[in-house]
Amino acid sequence: MSDDEALLSALRAIRARGAIGEVSLEQAIVHAEQFVAALPAEVGTLIDLGSGGGLPGLVIALRRPEVYVTLVERRQSRADLLSRAVRSLGLSAHVAVRATDVRIVAELSHGTFDVVTARSFAAPSITARWAGVLLRAGGRLVVSEPPIDDVDRWPVRLLASSGLVDLGRDQGVRIFVRL
Predict the structure, then answer these.
(1) C or N: which end of the chain has fewer Cβ atoms within 10 Å?
(2) So where are the chain's domains?
(3) Strand 173-178's sheet: what is its strand order?
């Protein structure tokens, strides 16, 4: 079974349990690959906030096996689904699933991640706040953006309060850097 066939199988199992709502898993993977494309060449650690059904975290883990990925999902049942998917995809050596609130991870891992990703995690103010805490200086936040670009969605003042600078939108994701 190819990586994408195995990934689709894992995502179908997660969707069957209600953790993914997308009609087309293939399109969801294509969107997750935009996160992969937004990653710098050199990345050691990445944390995916509100990992839910594993998008984009599982896709990133498959496409960038040299990156240590932490999937954070506060709902135990979804974290269990993610753990099963990680095992079935053979990703256990470089993917950890944390069944906890992002606040707890932030308290223990302040300023330690190279990249933070978020897809449907929370409002911009909450996402920026936690990314600002979790990212090391020079680290990146990559977030999923709605189809229509809203210039007021990420106010400069909000970003500044979290130590982030907007690098702009690239297709369906927006990229920020931590000062």
Answers:
(1) N
(2) 3-178
(3) 95-98, 68-72, 45-49, 113-118, 135-144, 173-178, 164-170
